[in-house]
C-alpha cells in the first residue's frame, strides 16, 4: 500500500511538471473601447506589450483603451510610483488592434519594453526621460528643458519635433535617435545605432560603437 501511495504521488508530481502551457487566446473580429481611471499625480507611462499609445498633455488625466473585445479584459493598467504601467497578459493569435489614448497633466517619463509604440505631443517644458528596450518606438513633440534618452535593442526615438535645451543620449544595439538640441548634447554609444541632431549644440561623444553621431543633413 505504501508503494502504491508513493507511485501516485510521483505520478502527480510528474504530471504537474509537464503540464502544457495555456493555449493562446484567439482574438475576436469585434472591437470595443473601455475607459479606465488614471491616478492623480501620474507623471509617466511604461508600455510592456504590443500596445500603441497616443499620449497628450492635458488638464485631466484619462485613459481610453481600444482593442478586440475579448482582449480588453487582459490589458492591465496600474499606476506604481507615479508611472502608469500598461501590459497585455498572455498570448494571442489572429489580427489584433491594441490602442490606448492617454492624457496626463504632465509627463516626465516615457518607457517602452518590447514592441509597443508611443506617440506623444503637447510637451511644454520641464525634464523628460525616454527609455526603450526591445523593438518599440517613441515619437515626441513640443518643448522640454532637458531630455534624457536610453535606448537598447532595435527600438528608436524620434524627438526631432521636441525642442530641448540640453540632452543626454545613451544607446546600445541598433536603435536610432533623432533629436533637436539648442545648447549641449552628450552621447554615450555602443553598437551600430546612430544619433542625428538638429541645432548647434556643443556635442560630447564617447563609447566604442560604430554608429554615427552627426548633425542632420539639410
Describe this structure in words.
The longest helix is centred in the N-terminal third of the chain and has 16 residues, at 2-17. By secondary structure, the chain is mostly beta strands. The chain has a 16-stranded mixed β-sheet that branches. Strands 1-8 form a two-stranded parallel ribbon. It has one helix at residues 2-17; strands at 25-26, 31-36, 44-48, 52-57, 62-68, 75-80, 83-88, 92-93, 99-104, 109-114, 117-124, 127-134, 137-153, 156-173, 177-189, 195-198, 202-206, 213-215. The protein has two domains: 27-106, Pectate Lyase C-like, CATH 2.160.20; 108-213, Pectate Lyase C-like. Keywords: Signal. InterPro entries: DUF2807. Pfam families: DUF2807 (PF10988). Residues 1-19 form the signal peptide.
Amino acid at each position: 500500500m505504501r508503494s502504491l501511495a508513493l507511485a501516485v504521488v510521483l505520478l502527480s508530481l510528474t504530471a504537474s511538471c509537464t503540464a502544457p502551457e495555456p493555449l493562446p487566446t484567439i482574438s475576436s473580429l469585434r472591437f470595443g473601447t473601455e475607459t479606465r481611471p488614471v491616478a492623480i499625480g501620474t507623471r509617466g507611462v511604461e508600455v510592456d506589450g504590443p500596445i500603441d499609445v497616443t499620449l497628450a498633455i492635458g488638464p485631466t488625466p484619462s485613459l481610453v483603451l481600444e482593442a478586440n473585445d475579448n482582449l480588453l479584459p487582459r490589458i492591465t493598467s496600474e499606476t506604481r510610483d507615479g508611472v502608469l504601467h500598461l501590459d497585455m497578459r498572455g498570448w494571442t493569435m489572429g489580427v489584433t488592434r491594441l490602442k490606448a489614448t492617454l492624457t496626463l497633466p504632465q509627463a516626465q517619463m516615457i518607457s517602452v519594453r518590447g514592441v509597443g509604440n508611443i506617440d506623444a505631443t503637447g510637451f511644454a517644458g520641464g525634464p523628460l526621460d525616454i527609455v526603450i528596450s526591445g523593438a518599440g518606438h517613441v515619437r515626441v513633440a513640443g518643448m522640454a528643458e532637458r531630455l534624457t534618452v536610453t535606448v537598447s535593442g532595435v527600438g528608436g526615438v524620434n524627438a526631432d519635433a521636441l525642442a530641448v535645451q540640453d540632452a543626454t543620449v545613451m544607446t546600445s544595439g541598433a536603435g536610432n535617435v533623432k533629436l533637436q538640441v539648442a545648447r549641449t548634447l552628450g552621447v554615450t554609444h555602443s553598437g551600430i545605432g546612430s544619433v542625428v541632431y538638429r541645432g548647434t549644440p556643443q556635442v560630447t561623444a564617447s563609447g566604442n560603437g560604430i554608429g554615427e553621431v552627426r548633425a542632420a543633413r539639410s
